[in-house]
Amino acid sequence: MAETLIKIDLSKSPQEHDNIHNRWHPDVPMVATVKPGSDFIVECMDWTGGQIGNNDSAEDVRDVDLSKVHYLSGPIAVEGAEPGDLLVVDILDIGAFADQMWGFNGVFAKENGGGFLTEHYPEARKTIWDFNGIYTKSRHIPGVEFIGLMHPGLIGCLPSQDLLDEWNSREQALIDTDPDRVPALANPPYAPTAHVGRATGDAAAKVAAEGARTVPPREHGGNCDIKDLTKGSRVFFPVYVKGGGLSMGDLHFSQGDGEITFCGAIEMAGWIHIRVNVIKDGCKKYGVKNPIFQPSDMAPSYKKHLIFEGISVDESGKQHYLDAHVAYRQACLNAIEYLKKFGYSGAQAYSLLGTAPVQGHISGIVDVPNVCATIWIPTEIFDFDIMPNAEGPTIAVSSPEVPTALWKG
Fold first, then answer.
1. Domain ranges of the chain
2. Residue 401 pLDDT class (50, 70, 90 cuts)
3. Which residues form a coiled coil (predicted)?
4. pLDDT per residue over 30-62, tens digit each?
5. Tens of pLDDT along 153-163?
6. CA 128, CA 351: separation in Å to the nearest integer?
7. SS3 of 101, please?
8. What whole-number percentage of the chain has pLDDT above 70?
């Protein structure tokens, strides 16, 4: 039986744990050291640290303090790992806690981060999902049940000081192009809510003042939200500090490609069982700048899909040049409009695209001026037929709108 290397207590706040941190910085102290070849279990809070409840109100999503997230378990040092090496992480298993078999999906208010389609869905919304073994369904979105593809939304190694400085410099330069934008273009360091693990004194103050926020993916990995990073997969992370400093969290029961509602997966607290190894000088040997991974053979076997296309022409009819962001937005909006014909509200369909195991593809990116992006919805997840036919769509679901909370003020 594998050792549980990092344990958490869900009855306590993240700040009461010294084996958790919420900023990236090379001076966050390691909480454990393991040998190459070791396998162990790491327990993780949900990414908000317990700010979201299993209820029918979206006020907690509206009021969530995003300056505190993500709460990560670690960092873990691997003996012999040095800058320039590759840290090899095998994900052996992953699951929810037995006494917390539920998760949540949220749409943040535009004023508090928004989402991929925030202009269309600016209010805070929430759906709750109950787990039954490998399956999940929601009382807020009837008519669907699917197999979860559990994965860590966030996993990576500590940055070096040079890399951290580069992150903060380039992201601040982006913010400076439109400092009053809502939502903000990026999230700079913010000391008041920094949780610095076991750092103390001057080191703690330095981590709080300089520590990079955990929201985006970066060269070290981080918040990549790759749904296929499930049990049976292998990841190769660039090492930037002695020991690597591996941290993880933001566990997802399921997610669609793109995690489009921002809090777009089915978020959960739980555990992850991993094994670590080291490839010496692996970054140079293989020309690695960002993590690379080998997906698992254990993905759900959905074979029938309905595919929606989008191109680089936005909702107003404006033509964009080879813009994949615009094209994928249009694919998502087209899918939502289609699902509304069966009785879903737009918000229900939006949440479904963020949680179900949909696939997102860049299907063409060279044919000027339009990118062709597609979103693939597995038809087997519905308990009714969503395929087009001569008779037209049948209203198959009828339910109240998902919990919504208007922005205060």
1. 4-294, 305-402
2. confident
3. none
4. 999 999 999 999 999 999 999 999 999 999 999
5. 999 999 999 99
6. 10
7. coil
8. 100
Q: Report the predicted TM-score, pTM, of the whole model to 2 decimal places.
A: 0.96
Who's near 324: CB < 8 A, 6+ residues apart? Answer: 312, 362, 365, 371, 373
Residue whose structure tokens are 């191109």: 311
State the CATH class of domain 4-294: mainly beta
State which CATH number among 3.40.50, 3.10.28, 3.30.390, 3.10.450 fits the domain covering 305-402. 3.10.28
Task: Give the number of C-alpha atoms closer than 13 A to the C-alpha of residue 16, restricted to the C-beta side.
Answer: 10
Position of tokens 């699917």?
146
Contact 72, 229 (CB under 8 A): no
Amino acid in the structure at residue 211: G
Two structure tokens written together for 65: 């303090």
* End-to-end CA gap in the chain: 53
Q: Distance between CA 136 and CA 47 in Å, rounded?
A: 19
**How many whole angstroms separate alpha carbon 41 and alpha carbon 197?**
19
Tell me the residue type at 279: I
Question: Is the bond preceding 217 in cis, omega lying within 30 degrees of 0?
Answer: no
For 35, counting Cβ atoms within 10 Å of its Cβ (0-12 exposed, 13-18 middle, 19+ buried), the class is exposed
| Predicted local confidence at residue 408, as pLDDT | 86
